[in-house]
DNA sequence: ATCCCGAGGG
DNA sequence: CCCTCTGGAT
C-alpha cells in the first residue's frame, strides 16, 4: 500500500503537471453553465467521449432549461439512450431544469448548497460546476481522482470526502484551481485503473506504486 | 449496501 | 467473458 507523499514531493508533482499543461480544461462538451450541469450529470459512470457523442446533437437543439422542458423526457431519452443509467439521468435533468426555471430564473446558481439541492446533482457534480463554470478552487473527487490520490499518496482517504479534504489540506494553494483537471487527466490517460502506464508517467520517480505492482 | 445501465476495452 | 467509465438516490 502506498504511503503519503511529503509536502515538497506533492509540490513537485504539480509543478511538473503545470509545466506540461499550463491551462488544463474539461474534455466534456458544453456551451454555457446550464449545459455544463447537464453534461456532468450525464457523465456519471460513463466516459466523456460517450457523453460528448450524445450531447453534440442535444446541445445544438437545447442550451437552456426552458428548451429542455420543451424537448421533454421522452425527447431527451432519444438523445441519451446510448449512455448508461439513461432513464434516471433523463428524469433528473428534466426535474432540475424545472427547478432552475421556477426557482432560479433559468440560471445556474453559483453556490454548492443550491447546486446539491438539484436532483441528480451531488457534491462531486456541484464541485465540478463551481470549478469549471465559476472559477472556484473546488475539488471534485471522481473515480479517477480517488484512485490517483490514493495510489500515488498525494492525498489519501477512505472515501471521496476524506480525499477532497486531503487535497485541500495538502495541495499547495497556487495549484488548487487546476488540480482537478491535472489529476483527472493523469488518471484518464496515465494512471489508468487496470494497467497503469507508469513508463509514461511524469511523477514515476516520486510515486511508489509501480514497484508494488511488479 | 444496492440499484441504475450502455459503450468500449482487454 | 469481465472491468471501467468525471455518481446519485434510496
Automatic annotation (TrEMBL):
Q: Which domain of life is it from?
A: Bacteria
Name of the molecule in the record: Endonuclease III
PANTHER family per UniProt: A/G-SPECIFIC ADENINE GLYCOSYLASE/ENDONUCLEASE III, ENDONUCLEASE III
Pfam families recorded for this chain? HHH, HhH-GPD
Q: What cofactors does the UniProt entry give for this protein?
A: [4Fe-4S] cluster
Q: What is its EC number?
A: 4.2.99.18
Provide the GO biological process annotations.
base-excision repair, AP site formation
What does the record's cofactor remark say about binding? Binds 1 [4Fe-4S] cluster.
The source organism is Pseudoroseicyclus tamaricis
Question: Where along this sequence does the record place binding of [4Fe-4S] cluster?
Answer: 191, 198, 201, 207
Domain named HhH-GPD is located at: 42-189
HAMAP family in the cross-refs: Nth
GO MF annotation list: 4 iron, 4 sulfur cluster binding; class I DNA-(apurinic or apyrimidinic site) endonuclease activity; DNA binding; DNA N-glycosylase activity; metal ion binding
Which residues belong to the signal peptide in this entry?
none
**Reactions it catalyzes:** 2'-deoxyribonucleotide-(2'-deoxyribose 5'-phosphate)-2'-deoxyribonucleotide-DNA = a 3'-end 2'-deoxyribonucleotide-(2,3-dehydro-2,3-deoxyribose 5'-phosphate)-DNA + a 5'-end 5'-phospho-2'-deoxyribonucleoside-DNA + H(+)
Which major enzyme category is it? lyase
Sorted alphabetically, the keyword list is: 4Fe-4S, DNA damage, DNA repair, DNA-binding, Endonuclease, Glycosidase, Hydrolase, Iron, Iron-sulfur, Lyase, Metal-binding, Nuclease
Q: Describe the function of this protein.
A: DNA repair enzyme that has both DNA N-glycosylase activity and AP-lyase activity. The DNA N-glycosylase activity releases various damaged pyrimidines from DNA by cleaving the N-glycosidic bond, leaving an AP (apurinic/apyrimidinic) site. The AP-lyase activity cleaves the phosphodiester bond 3' to the AP site by a beta-elimination, leaving a 3'-terminal unsaturated sugar and a product with a terminal 5'-phosphate.
Q: Which gene encodes it?
A: nth
What family does this chain come from, according to its entry? Answer: Belongs to the Nth/MutY family.
